[in-house]
Specification:
Length: 76
């Protein structure tokens, strides 16, 4: 029983770590898009790419791109 409990805790810890890592990568990617857009205001292809990802990306990618666009245009 004790071995099963340790295994269960280890699995739970691995799941929590994976979620935290995913969230950190998500935030880093979103910040990167914001910085790219802010420092390249004349790059129409970049803006087109980000907008396209809002419609064609996975849910996570679309959400991140949309939030990045909102942050950039909110700051202007």
């Amino acid at each position: 029983m004790n071995t099963e409990r340790k295994f269960s805790r280890k699995k739970k810890h691995e799941k929590i770590t994976a979620v935290v890592n995913f969230f950190q990568i998500y935030k880093l990617a979103q910040e990167t898009i914001v910085l790219l857009l802010e420092f390249n205001p004349d790059a129409q292809a970049l803006l087109d790419w980000v907008i396209d990802r809002c419609y064609t990306g996975s849910h996570e990618v679309a959400d991140g791109c949309f939030n990045a666009l909102a942050m950039v245009f909110n700051n202007k």
